[in-house]
Every structure is written in structure tokens, then in C-alpha cells.
């Protein structure tokens, strides 16, 4: 069977959910000028055909925590096993198998320095099949998080975007502290961002009004945002790659801002290490990747070196469950 075909309404619904992952179908329907039943039916079809999922994601920076990108070069016989094991850990955000199947890259969100050190300096370093481990702290996000790839699809008109977009979160003066009910709520929406209030009540033991109030507080402080995950193929994004850019310090901010405007870029961040910007990009073909590197990246002032690697398999996206 061929890849499913998505039409303009499908893309509009997906972008609407990226803007507000818990938007009622009735609100989306009103903005798009269709019926509630049409939106609900299309959403069910998108779940079945391109694995669309809305997931709640925690912004670790708002909790006073650091996010890390870890690169592991290993022997070919252990790469997939290592990737699968990392995907099952609750402190990994995503896991990619790249570079001819001998390198695993994962995003980490350790909840404490102890957890970070235990993984980086103990478990991984003592695994004999792992040749090298390098850990890079993400310093500043240029694109990613609540700004998903679907926001660049232009499926919605500017007016429709304005009608669906939530107010921007307010940065708290100090790191947000979570209680047990908050943690239970975040764990539930991490598995299903559109979980019903009834399900959230059961998971937290809170009343409907308390759940609603907690959700609003977590979202308004930026601790919680929602991401739409999907199979990239039907949207012409079969070829994924990671880029490590070495940029002159004077040009770091300008290059980062430029990357954020590129439709091909799903994620870009300043990072520690010799390569001081990391980016995730998607294309229809390797030839498009070549054109992007030679024309768009090549045109940016201040870039001193570029390392690129194709993503062979995305083992885990922003969830606890490995993807196959």
C-alpha cells in the first residue's frame, strides 16, 4: 500500500492542534468553517493513518533543570540494543540511530545532578561496547519546544492562526515547584495530551475544577506545552538529518535566528562543545539535503564547519514509549 494522502483540511487540523493541543473540536471546527463531526472524524483517521498523537511535554528549563544532548559511538552489534534501552528510560526525550548504525543520539532531561552523573559517568562509560560518550548541555533554544514543525506548514491563514493560538506563557521569576498532583497530571498528559478531564481527575484524585486550574497554571507558566507527533513520510519528510554547526561566537545568535526561519528546521539550539549549534532537519530526498547544505547553510555568515548525519531510525519521540 502507498503512503496515505493528506489534504489541506488534514494539515489545518494538525496545525491547529500544534497551536493548542487541547483545543475542543468545536473550536477548531468553528475556525475552519466545518462541522464538529468532520474534525472528530478526520482526527480519528489521522491517528490511524499517520499516527498523529498529541502529547504533553514538560519544559525542563521552567523547573530549573538542564536539558542535554548525548552522542554515543558504539560497536555496530550493540547500537540498536542501546537505543531501545535508552528509549525506555523516563529521562530521555528522544532517541535517534544515526551514522551507519554506529552512533546513538538522545535528548536527556535528568531530574537531578545525581541522575545525570549516574548515567553519563557510570552506566554509559562502563558499557564496554560504547566507544565514546559526549554530553552537550543545551544553552538556548532557537526553534523547537512549543514551536513545532507544523507551525511552518502555513496550512492555516494568519487569521485562523490568531484565533487558535494561546496567549504566550509568562516566565516565572523563579523555577516552578511541582507537587504530587502536578506530577501525576503531567505524567497523564505525557501519554495522551487530549486525555479527558474525567481521566485526569482519576489520575490525580482532584476535582474537575482543580484539574482545570492546574492545567491552566502549568500552561500559563510554560511548564507544560503540547506537541503533535506524526509519521513524516506523508508530509514529504522521509529524510531526516542532524546537523552540528561550528559557528563563530559573534555570529551565533544571527545563525540561530536564521535557522529558526528555515522551513526545513524542526529544532535548533545553541549547545556546549566544539560544534555550538545542533539542528534537526527533514527533507524529501538526500538531494534536497545537499541543496540545503550548499545553498542555505553555505550562505550563512560565521559558519566555520558543518557535520551532518542521516537519521536511520527514530527510536523514540517525545514520549515514554519507543516508536517502531
Structure description:
- With 324 residues, the chain is of the alpha+beta class.
- The chain has a domain at 142-149 and 233-316: Alpha-Beta Plaits (2-Layer Sandwich), CATH 3.30.70.920.
- The protein is 36% helix and 26% strand.
- It contains eleven helices and ten strands.
- It has helices at 8-19, 25-32, 36-49, 79-87, 113-123, 158-164, 180-191, 197-204, 208-220, 252-261, 286-297; strands spanning 53-58, 68-74, 92-98, 103-108, 130-143, 224-229, 239-247, 265-271, 277-283, 303-316.
- The strands form two sheets. An eight-stranded antiparallel β-barrel has the order 2-4-3-10-7-9-8-5. Strands 1-6 form a two-stranded antiparallel ribbon.
- A hairpin with a 4-residue loop joins strand 3 and strand 4.
- The radius of gyration is 20 Å and the shape is globular.
- 36% of the residues are buried.
- The model is unreliable at 319-324 (pLDDT under 50).
